[in-house]
Amino acid sequence: MYFESHDNCKTSIFDYHRSCTECSFDLCLICCRELRSGQLLGGADPITLEFPFRGRDYLHGENLDKTVNQTESNDATEPLIREWSRAGWHAESNGSIPCPKECNHGFLELRSVLGQHFITDLLRKASGLAETFKHETPDKVCLCSWPDRSANYGMRKAASRADSSDNYLYCPKAVQLQDEDLGHFRWHWEKGEPVIVSHVIDGTSGLSWEPLVMWRAFRQMTNTKREQHLDVKAIDCLDFCEVCLSLFTECFFSKIVIHSHEVYV
């Protein structure tokens, strides 16, 4: 898939669009229609975001240098200059659209990204897959959806709508599952219905996601053959700097301090 954005409205290219014959200027079909009608929208001036410069050492995790000139900035904050203008840009009398850039008088021709036979080939491949696997269509009604059998088929009441057959959700237990339970689960899953699976932790080998249990497991690691990534580096997105975190303390306690920054997790 081609995700290059158009030069005017910045929308993503999916298939059909117009591209200049002499340069890389692209225009979507909606912008072409607006241009022919004299009501071209989009193409607003670029927005420049200015961030305070706190020193290059600060960007790499060091402390803030208060002596740095705050007016210093990098090239990324300089405003972008548009290479073309919409002033005086219009379609020709025959409907053709000239390129707004100065590229030896090129014009925008209709092009396709996916190709002429893409949809036909896609349908043919889909039909081949359906014929190969012969996917069975689920029955229209499941026995567990009957109100009088909801308790016996592991259903849980989720709504009380009148004259509705989907007030109950399938809620199987993840223990002592049989082959028919898997088929039952697939039936509801293929219909796009939500399924609530209970007693999942009961089938695990004592695994716990409690913070203190995980913290003790990290402290008790004794396998020297495996590299212990206990000190990891992260990016402070608020300050655009790199910080170091210790999994022993920072990840399992409520308050941590990084380079005089207080962070709450």
UniProtKB/TrEMBL annotation:
Which GO cellular component term is one of those annotated?
chromatin
Q: Is the keyword Ligase in the record? A: no
In Gene Ontology terms, what is a biological process of this protein? Answer: regulation of transcription by RNA polymerase II
| InterPro entries assigned to the protein according to its UniProt record, in alphabetical order | LSDs-like (IPR045109)
> GO molecular function, one example?
histone H3K9 demethylase activity
> Keyword annotations for this protein?
Metal-binding, Nucleus
Q: Is the keyword Glycoprotein in the record?
A: no
Q: What is its main location?
A: nucleus
Q: Which family does it belong to?
A: Belongs to the JARID1 histone demethylase family.
What is the name of this protein?
A: Lysine-specific demethylase 3B
Q: Where in the cell is it found?
A: Nucleus
